[in-house]
């Protein structure tokens, strides 16, 4: 049955999706965001006191006094904030320089307008301190009355009076510190007097009083002490206040750090007020009224925070007291010694142990209460609630203890700044605040501070998650304790009071019960025997005490705590009644215990600069100092803590808005956060990129090279593992109410760094010669691996897209690499390099023929933009140095990989233009010149003259050419450039074999051959040669449009890849058939339909190359020059080393056999130049001479000249003499020659790269092949 859902229900269901939690499982390494926290305030400040009309009048009176005094304390805090955050206005106002200044009236008017509101605040402050002193002295006088001294004074009352004493101490110190307050009042007073604003005597007197009040130091303390000394017995009340402070401090009956420090300040300032002309604290100590020895021990904590970044030394209260000098020996706190309490590093062992122990216990409850979701739903017993209550209390006490440690260390450091003698890194010109913060902490102390802050903030997160569970447990436990105490425990004292008819005690106990009790059924049991003073029946009197999660109000807690005075201890005392109010506001107490906002505020030190500083730079700010220290040291164990110091800005911003209520302070915090977080992201991104770059460089570094370095004592370290993964998972970091995607910001920076790294690699290549292309490929490989590692943690553009952008190859057909390769080829490689056939390398000539090309110097960049680190840069530089002095196969393979087919095509095209310009320009002009100086008649001398005679004959004929001055400098240099260009093309083609080699199956070959553009050269590498050969022998391959010669690379001894070359000229109509004499153990044989021409099987390798530039076949002159290039280039021959070969149909060493014979002597290795000559040895002496391939080191320039003459001017007389000249030159060779006769049939396939060049002696015709050596018969020409 289909259920119909209405549109309204469907929309409501969609709206419910917004409430669906979508956790992203990111690691929690930051404090809870204050922007989404709320705090319920249950403190009524005794506003509900009138509801408890049944209580004793004294309690109601005390509640009223408490309420008014608390309001005065709040007002005093506002004035303290006003003084602390006071910024001088008079410095910003233009000053009147002389009485004749025309605009002085306007300046004075503006001065009064600006400063009058501020001076009004100062006037109100003066009146407030008067009123506060009078109120305090009035309370002291009332409590010190002879009749009242017989009664007790409640602890809460004494503590409130102690808070007043602390307020007076703070206000007086703030007034003394702020010179800008006095300066602003003086500026206002001058302007007002000039404008006659204070004409009446009362205004003048008030202004004078304010001036004296601000000018006199310790004015508040002096007035307070003077008014107290006229009160009889004031020292007794002050002694009670000091004793209650000592008791609370000794028994740790405080929760927040400010409460602890307030108790110490009350002790010190209270002793100072007591020790005067009327009383003597040392006499009180002798009477056991106070315990100075215990206070002296407490004052070993030398420095405590006063307000903000203001600190006070407790010993100063003692040293400034009236009777200190004669009792100096009784004090040890005044001696200069460093307290171990300020050495945070020594306390870290205990702090870590407490943290681990508490976290373990908290996790046990958190898993059952929060993770499983059973915390609020399940009903617990009183014992279970009590365990959670104790856990919450212990957690708050631990947080308070750790925060206190941090604040005390910070306070001590501010009071004791370092100098250049204590810290060698501290410059002599450092400011005082800089010496107190930036240079005043060792690395260990900074790490200890970071670790403690991380513990505080981390535990705050965990306890904040359990806030609802803790609140329920706290309210249940306090409610149960109060009700059990009022309804059960007080029954026995009440029974005894009724029985003994103590009416006062009865009224007190009844008032407490009526104030606290929450009776079952909303009324007290009327038949309770204790109300009549009777004993309970034998079965007991059943009183059902309800259980609710409801906390008492502040008035109820105050009433209940008075029970302690009567000595009827019970459950209320056992749960620390002094903490009830704090625990009932658990979230507020948690925030106060974790508040470290004062680490940022620096108003006191800004005041000391006297206007030279508007604000301190971030290098002096504690939050950034700690954050930057983690980033600079790259300590792996601290990297996950790096966000916790930044939370100090959250604390400071919250305090500036909610406590100080100063927008300008928040704006300064926000501005610093903007700057610091930018720096943080910048440094973090650079570190992450450098880390993964070094990791990639270490992974790709040759293991053998690393091992060899280790053998020589050089260690190339791997980068130490770090914990950046956790930071890269942060998607919503909370900072000043903002939610920041740290991963996205770091990704942006790293993307820019990756682009810069690729750009630097290409720029480095552009600043060096062609040999550096190997280094470029290494840099690209390292960047590619770095990109792959980083892509696991962030979303980056594809590496190919980044590479194209860095290479400027996004829209352009070719990029920077291609352009620089061609630039280097044109201006450096072609004119200055020489080919070595033995090593198959190009080397730079000893004498350069061109000027050194001007290249841009590479920019100085950080090591991580290259290989990752300085050691890796040095290691790779050593490896790369072996590729610096030559251009060989590694370079050509790298060029193929980096340029690709498109880039290679561009380079080839440009090289052809260069070759064409050389041939049609320089070379053509010199050839015409040489033709003109060639001898007109040069007959063939008789062979009886012998070799010396013949040589001298030709030497005389060609003397003009040999002595031509520009032959070697210009002609040969141009031929070198042309030859290098063609060799470059050839080696690039060979490199493409290995670069683009792909295994093909036999079944795919027919299709492959049908689509390949014959007759262009095709190069393949086959992994299964026997299958390929069988396919060739059994298939006619009808799709092939032209004959193709295929040589097997695996023929017994050949280790080279397969080479397939089209032999067909478009003019050749001959069909192709295949022999069936193939076997896996015999060489591949191919023949034309009429004759079988077996290939030499021992050639290593058998190579048949057509011209690497087939598109030039329509240009006879260019083709002839290119074809002869390998013969003319002053470089070693391609075919090195030569191997002895012979035709299967002839004797191996027979030069006169009717069949052609291929002979190569190992001595031809001595010949560095290939030479083409014609041999006079033929089957018939009457036959014309035929070309023969030999190796001779002597006459390659002469051969080149003859062939060019023959090609350029076939009908000239010199052209007719060329074959004779070449034939005669074979006699000049002192080495065995390689001879091939073309007369015999069938011709032998030569395994030589020159086979495609020999047809240059013949003119092609429609009936002959352009490759005569490969034709079934000799060419008709």
UniProtKB/TrEMBL annotation:
GO MF annotation, one: small GTPase binding
What range(s) does the CYRIA/CYRIB Rac1 binding domain occupy? Answer: 64-228
Q: Which domain of life is it from?
A: Eukaryota
GO cellular component term of the entry, any? cytoplasm
Q: Name one GO biological process term.
A: regulation of actin filament polymerization
| Matching Pfam families | CYRIA-B_Rac1-bd (PF07159), FragX_IP (PF05994)
Q: Which family does it belong to?
A: Belongs to the CYFIP family.
The protein here is known as Cytoplasmic FMR1 interacting protein 2
Q: Which organism is it from?
A: Salmo trutta
